[in-house]
Specification:
Layout (H helix, E strand, L loop, with lengths): L1 E6 L4 H11 L7 E7 L9 H5 L3 E3 L11 H13 L4 E4 L8 H6 L4 E5 L11 H8 L3 E8 L9 E8 L6 H24 L5
Parallel strand pairs: 1-2, 1-4, 2-3, 4-5
Antiparallel strand pairs: 5-6, 6-7
Helix pairs in contact: 1-6
The structure holds glycinamide ribonucleotide.
Family: Belongs to the GART family.
GO biological process, one term: 'de novo' IMP biosynthetic process
Function: Catalyzes the transfer of a formyl group from 10-formyltetrahydrofolate to 5-phospho-ribosyl-glycinamide (GAR), producing 5-phospho-ribosyl-N-formylglycinamide (FGAR) and tetrahydrofolate.
Length: about 190
């Protein structure tokens, strides 16, 4: 199963996926391309490190959405790669129905909270400020409702008295680095008879 990863940030989750692939923990999935909407994003440095094509793709002038030309650029560039799965690994841009429908049921997103709690920006900070005792991370299918698509799997993280926002962030990132590759491996398995 061919995977395309989209990310905007440092790319620790993309690195976890690529490390899992190198250790035969990604099932039948393999990463064929990384795209970033941010020209200097850390995620792009994973390309040469792991021997995977990685490129900046211009999303247009807006901060959190695509303009029409940018959306077309993404759809066509991804479609050419014929992916079985498009993985949003820290991709901080909203996808509209035209994009989602181009890859129906093939786009998954990682979110740093136990959805449906704390959708949107800064899921970790939202949970921390609310004072919940258990939070975590979620992988879900992308639909037009932001962070609202069907949940595929989740991992829970307990917030201890001794935690700070920084230690909580580390715990959630560790949970993400285990969860996302395991979900991809599972989705890559052929349907059972
Ligand atoms: C991850 O924590 C991911 O859950 C979050 O961005 C981070 C990316 O880290 N995504 C969202 O908040 C999406 N709404 P990374 O670049 O190190 O993988």
């Amino acid at each position: 199963m061919r995977i395309v990863i989209l990310g905007s940030g440092r790319g620790s989750n993309a690195a976890a996926i690529l490390e899992a692939a190198g250790q035969n923990r990604l099932g039948r999935a393999r990463v064929v391309q990384i795209f970033s909407d941010k020209p200097g994003a850390g995620i792009l440095a994973l390309g040469p490190r792991f021997g995977v094509p990685a490129a900046h793709l211009d999303p247009g002038p807006f901060k959190t959405k695509f303009d029409e030309a940018g959306e077309t650029r993404y759809i066509e560039s991804i479609r050419t790669l014929d992916p079985g799965l498009v993985v949003l690994a820290g991709f901080m841009r909203i996808l509209k129905p035209r994009f989602i429908d181009a890859f129906s049921r093939k786009i998954i997103n990682l979110h740093p909270s136990l959805l449906p709690s704390f959708p949107g920006l800064d899921g970790i900070g939202q949970a921390w400020r609310r004072g919940v005792k258990i939070t975590g991370c979620t992988v879900h299918y992308v639909t037009a409702e932001v962070d609202g698509g069907p949940i595929i799997d989740q991992s829970a993280v307990r917030i201890e008295e001794s935690d700070t926002l920084e230690t909580l962030e580390q715990k959630i990132h560790s949970a993400e680095h285990a969860l996302l590759p395991s979900v991809i491996a599972r989705l890559s398995a052929p349907p059972s008879q």
